[in-house]
């Protein structure tokens, strides 16, 4: 595979060769300027002290502790002062139960230990706390323990619930991309999508240390963005509370000090720091309204105008995103009008009229609407409806545990898929009718003026076809659930099927091959069959 890639690589720049050597495939995308985009289709999740929820065993790192929480009279009294809602009955009940726990637990507890103890005495009351109230209590009881000590947080990828192969590939590509720019690169880590960006900074610095490059946390938080915009650094603590985090100066004093210093240094210094970095990673999680709001309030003002530092991030020579933050790369304008951002909703919700687009993003990508957590969350028809709503022709959805690499260059136009699954490309043909393409891991895709095509090296190195029985002549039910649409299209590809029909309630999804439809088995996995130009049509049973 590498030898086949080299012939293709000879037509592009030397920096791309380095990428291909490490990643095992070539990858270039052309535009007016040079830029490498590495868009992860899901969040970075692996087993660490700070993230035991991703571990296969209850206490995977027995010699380390994560965040700690202390029940003391002073902490409980402090918690009473600024209760975040008007529901004083919950305040009274919370204080009462915490005082009961105080008598039973004199030593600091992990979050899991604290919540189990609370459930033992007041499970119903704990469950009745609003999310705002719950977050406030947890923040106020946390004690300083982790600040600036990321080196002690072990990573145990072997015990992770999810495969880490796709992350290994992605990390290699990040490292190669950065080191092409300089021998000693610096990657800025932005954790604004997290409710607690200070704790998140510790976690992601730990994970990204596997890239082997120098990491710096950029304290671009919702609070800092507002303080800089309003030129009110003295109110940074107030803005931090308004953003939904509390007690951070006590828990993470070093990180809060870094944030305060960045505010006092001003906007120009912040922009200079972004521009002088080798690359930026904009951390994201799975979509929810709060995550979207945190990202948008950090990147855009209340009128939707980009802050001065937003364009510096968007133009970073190496820009990495994870999860929902990748959706926000779409933006700018095309000949068809402004490019929106996909609001990730299920296909069925989109078909039933739920709004599927929101305001545009930073504009690093104008050629397509982007979506993440794609096939697993059944978002193919949701993306299709987004194209209809935004009157844009192209949409790209990146599956979980998969990364799409885009390298912009004046010389070549190519995308590469890394990881375990694949990337869906939809092209709008007419109302409710689309061209469906699927690019598996290892696929190299060239972008031409007339559209996207699978590269000749990808086709030439395709595996032999396999003999499987033809699909049964039936209408596949619940086609928009449980990633069934991806399964059906992969089965069509492997069996060289020319048509198939699926149904979800009153909606019919028809898949039809045409004379230009092509199937190529790029890899041997369950998601390894590339599909080019399959027609997808949505109709409704009357």
**First-last Cα distance:** 50 Å
User: What is the SS-derived class?
Assistant: alpha+beta
Q: Shape, please?
A: globular
Instruction: Quote the beta fraction.
Output: 15-25%
Q: Please summarize the sheet with the most strands.
A: 9 strands, mixed
Description:
There is one protein chain. The protein is of the alpha+beta class and 542 residues long. Helices cover 36% and strands 21% of the residues. The protein contains 19 helices and 25 strands. The strands form five sheets. Strands 6-5-7-8-1-15-16-19-20 form a nine-stranded mixed beta sheet. Strands 13, 14, 17, 18, 21, 22, 23, 24 and 25 form a nine-stranded mixed beta sheet that branches. A three-stranded antiparallel beta sheet has the order 3-2-4. Helix 8 links the parallel strand 5 and strand 6. It is globular. The termini are far apart.
Would you summarize the structure shown here?
Helix content is 36%, strand content 21%. It has 542 residues and is an alpha+beta fold.
Kindly list the characteristics that best describe this protein.
alpha+beta, 9-stranded mixed sheet, 542 residues, single chain, 36% helix, 25 strands, disordered N terminus, 19 helices
Write the layout of secondary structure elements.
Elements: H1 2-9, H2 14-23, E1 35-40, E2 68-69, H3 73-81, H4 88-104, E3 109-110, H5 111-128, H6 131-141, E4 142-143, H7 165-181, E5 186-190, H8 197-208, E6 214-217, H9 222-230, H10 236-242, H11 248-251, H12 253-265, H13 267-276, E7 279-282, H14 289-299, H15 308-314, E8 318-322, E9 333-334, E10 337-338, E11 341-342, H16 347-351, E12 357-358, E13 369-371, H17 380-390, E14 394-398, E15 402-408, E16 414-419, E17 422-430, E18 433-440, E19 444-448, E20 451-454, H18 456-460, E21 475-477, H19 484-495, E22 499-504, E23 507-512, E24 518-521, E25 529-540
Parallel strand pairs: 1-8, 5-6, 5-7, 7-8, 13-14, 21-22
Antiparallel strand pairs: 1-15, 2-3, 2-4, 9-10, 11-12, 14-17, 15-16, 16-19, 17-18, 18-25, 19-20, 22-23, 23-25, 24-25
Helix pairs in contact: 1-2, 2-7, 3-4, 3-6, 4-5, 9-10, 9-14, 13-15
């Amino acid at each position: 595979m590498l030898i086949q890639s080299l012939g293709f690589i000879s037509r592009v720049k030397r920096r791309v060769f380095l990428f291909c050597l490490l990643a095992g495939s070539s990858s270039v995308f052309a535009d007016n300027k040079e830029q490498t985009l590495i868009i992860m289709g899901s969040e970075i999740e692996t087993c660490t002290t700070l993230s035991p929820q991703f571990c296969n065993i209850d206490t995977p790192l027995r010699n380390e502790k994560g965040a700690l929480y202390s029940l003391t009279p002073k902490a409980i009294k402090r918690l009473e002062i600024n209760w975040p809602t008007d529901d004083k009955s919950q305040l009274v009940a919370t204080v009462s139960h915490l005082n009961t726990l105080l008598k039973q637990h004199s030593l600091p507890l992990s979050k899991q230990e604290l919540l189990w103890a609370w459930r033992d005495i007041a499970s119903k009351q704990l469950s009745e706390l609003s999310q705002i109230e719950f977050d406030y209590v947890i923040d106020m009881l946390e004690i300083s323990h982790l600040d600036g000590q990321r080196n002690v947080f072990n990573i145990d990828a072997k015990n992770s619930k999810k495969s880490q192969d796709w992350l290994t590939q992605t990390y290699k590509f990040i490292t190669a991309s950065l080191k092409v720019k300089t021998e000693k690169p610096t990657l800025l880590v932005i954790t604004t999508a997290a409710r607690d960006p200070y704790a998140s900074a510790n976690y992601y610095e730990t994970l990204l240390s596997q890239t082997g490059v120098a990491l710096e946390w950029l304290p671009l938080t919702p609070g800092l963005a507002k303080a800089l915009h309003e030129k009110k650094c003295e109110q940074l603590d107030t803005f931090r509370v308004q953003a939904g985090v509390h007690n951070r100066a006590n828990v993470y004093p070093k990180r809060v000090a870094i944030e305060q210093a960045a505010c006092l240094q001003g906007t120009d210094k912040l922009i200079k720091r972004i521009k002088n970095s080798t690359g930026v990673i904009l951390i994201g999680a799975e979509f929810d309204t709060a995550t979207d709001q945190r990202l948008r309030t950090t990147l855009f003002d209340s009128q939707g105008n980009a802050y001065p530092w937003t364009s510096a991030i968007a133009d970073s020579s190496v820009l990495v995103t994870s999860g929902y933050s990748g959706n926000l790369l779409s933006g700018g304008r095309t000949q068809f009008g402004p490019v929106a951002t996909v609001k990730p909703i299920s296909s069925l919700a989109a078909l039933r009229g739920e709004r599927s687009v929101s305001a545009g993003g930073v504009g690093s990508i104008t050629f397509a609407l982007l979506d993440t957590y794609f096939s697993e969350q059944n978002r193919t028809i949701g993306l299709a409806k987004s194209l209809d709503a935004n009157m844009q022709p192209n949409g790209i959805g990146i599956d979980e545990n998969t990364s799409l690499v885009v390298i912009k260059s004046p010389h070549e136009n190519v995308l590469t898929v890394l990881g375990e699954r694949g990337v869906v490309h939809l092209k709008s043909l007419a109302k409710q009718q689309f061209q469906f393409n699927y690019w598996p891991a290892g696929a190299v895709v060239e972008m031409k003026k007339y559209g996207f095509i699978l590269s000749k090296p990808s086709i030439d190195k395709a595996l032999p076809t396999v003999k499987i029985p033809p699909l049964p002549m039936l209408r596949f039910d619940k086609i928009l659930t449980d990633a069934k649409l991806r399964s059906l299209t992969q089965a069509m590809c492997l069996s060289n099927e020319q048509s198939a029909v699926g149904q979800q309630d009153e909606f019919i999804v028809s898949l039809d091959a045409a004379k230009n439809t092509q199937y190529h088995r790029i890899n041997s996995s369950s998601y390894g069959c590339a599909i080019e130009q399959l027609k997808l049509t949505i109709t409704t049973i009357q």
